[in-house]
Amino acid sequence: MATSSDIKNGFTFRHNHDIYSVVEFQHVKPGKGAAFVRTKIKSLSTGRVLSETFPSGHKVDEVRVERHKMQYLYKDDMGFHFMNTETYEQARIREELIDNPGFMREGDTIEVLYNTEDNTALTVDLPQYIEMEITYTEPGIKGDTATNTLKPATIETGAEVRVPLFVSTGDRIKIDTRNGAYVSRV
């Protein structure tokens, strides 16, 4: 058991029958009254971010987690299959645990957060930025560049992103995996 004074960014604990990770925290000692910890916590099962306040000395049930580098192998009807790059053990992970599975290529190394108590995967963290090749996009219309117009483009994994008009088929682009937005041409 940990107390509210142990709370820091990345701290994982069980709260209201779910596992949460601390995104942001602030220890507050008002001039009048008891100290407390104001937090923003993210549910590792649903991805929902909540604001919670814990009084000073409040006991929380800490959950031990480990991060493993895993290599994405393939997808089938049972889920996504990964291999631990250190032990070569294979694991199947449900699609709900992956934020943007359309940005994973076979052979990519991805970080997986595991609960050490029962060895279950909690989240799959893709790199923040990835580089992909555009396999198909319509050509841009000449003279239509006065505004920030975007057009759909299909990348090598089959996912669709919105890109500026000057990007064409065969170009390599940098994509933000958190929201699927175009960042730059590479």
UniProtKB/TrEMBL annotation:
<keyword id="KW-0963">Cytoplasm</keyword>
<keyword id="KW-0648">Protein biosynthesis</keyword>
<dbReference type="InterPro" id="IPR011768">
    <property type="entry name" value="Transl_elongation_fac_P"/>
</dbReference>
<comment type="function">
    <text>Involved in peptide bond synthesis. Stimulates efficient translation and peptide-bond synthesis on native or reconstituted 70S ribosomes in vitro. Probably functions indirectly by altering the affinity of the ribosome for aminoacyl-tRNA, thus increasing their reactivity as acceptors for peptidyl transferase.</text>
</comment>
<dbReference type="InterPro" id="IPR014722">
    <property type="entry name" value="Rib_uL2_dom2"/>
</dbReference>
<keyword id="KW-0251">Elongation factor</keyword>
<dbReference type="InterPro" id="IPR012340">
    <property type="entry name" value="NA-bd_OB-fold"/>
</dbReference>
<dbReference type="GO" id="GO:0003746">
    <property type="term" value="F:translation elongation factor activity"/>
</dbReference>
<comment type="pathway">
    <text>Protein biosynthesis; polypeptide chain elongation.</text>
</comment>
<dbReference type="InterPro" id="IPR013185">
    <property type="entry name" value="Transl_elong_KOW-like"/>
</dbReference>
<dbReference type="InterPro" id="IPR015365">
    <property type="entry name" value="Elong-fact-P_C"/>
</dbReference>
<protein>
    <recommendedName>
        <fullName>Elongation factor P</fullName>
    </recommendedName>
</protein>
<dbReference type="Pfam" id="PF08207">
    <property type="entry name" value="EFP_N"/>
</dbReference>
<dbReference type="InterPro" id="IPR020599">
    <property type="entry name" value="Transl_elong_fac_P/YeiP"/>
</dbReference>
<feature type="domain" description="Elongation factor P C-terminal">
    <location>
        <begin position="130"/>
        <end position="185"/>
    </location>
</feature>
<dbReference type="Pfam" id="PF01132">
    <property type="entry name" value="EFP"/>
</dbReference>
<comment type="similarity">
    <text>Belongs to the elongation factor P family.</text>
</comment>
<dbReference type="InterPro" id="IPR013852">
    <property type="entry name" value="Transl_elong_P/YeiP_CS"/>
</dbReference>
<dbReference type="Pfam" id="PF09285">
    <property type="entry name" value="Elong-fact-P_C"/>
</dbReference>
<feature type="domain" description="Translation elongation factor P/YeiP central">
    <location>
        <begin position="67"/>
        <end position="122"/>
    </location>
</feature>
<dbReference type="InterPro" id="IPR001059">
    <property type="entry name" value="Transl_elong_P/YeiP_cen"/>
</dbReference>
<dbReference type="InterPro" id="IPR008991">
    <property type="entry name" value="Translation_prot_SH3-like_sf"/>
</dbReference>
